[in-house]
Amino acid sequence: MAFTRKWYSADLHLGHAGILNFGLPTRSSFTSTEEMDKVIIEKINERVAPTDLFYILGDFAHTSDVEYVRHCFHAMNGRKVLIVGNHDLDKKGRLAKVVRDLPWDIPPTPAMETHDNDKRIHLSHYAHRVWPASHHGSYHFYGHSHAALPGIGRSRDVGIDMPDVGFGPMLFTDLIKGME
Prior knowledge:
The protein is of the alpha/beta class. It has one domain: Purple Acid Phosphatase, chain A, domain 2 (4-Layer Sandwich). The chain has four helices and eight strands; from the N terminus they run βαβαβαβββββα. The protein has helices spanning 33-47, 66-75, 97-100, 172-175; strands at 6-9, 53-57, 79-83, 111-116, 119-124, 139-142, 155-157, 170-171. The strands form two sheets. It has a four-stranded mixed beta sheet. Strands 4-5-6-7 form a four-stranded mixed beta sheet, with no helix packed on it. It is globular, with a radius of gyration of 15 Å.
């Protein structure tokens, strides 16, 4: 049986044309969402094996093109877990159709906890000042801020727009460097 690794990322924004104009250095060189999405999928597949767990901390896609998102989803390696972000919801606050029917490893959830290297991690799309067991050594990974909100203590933005992630998912051990 192969060893399963856990990867963490956020804010893929697949199919989101508007993000190309947000002034993010990681996205400014792309001329189309298709070009951006192709690079995101390549970065994921360079790192994530088909049996690995891939935690996506919100904003998986921002388009109404269900077939395009389905294609992107299936082009990515890994058993995908979605922590729901604001762009994963419809205008009524329900899970958007574009992500709702994808074969996620578990049903999409607003937040969750996992363990990695015997450490407790709270996963959410949004940054928290405190989180479960934050005063007892747990970690907190989030997205949403696109590298604009620094972490505090044992929390950090794991989104692909962070300068230290190379526009792709990262392992726990690499994400916590410098926190301990």
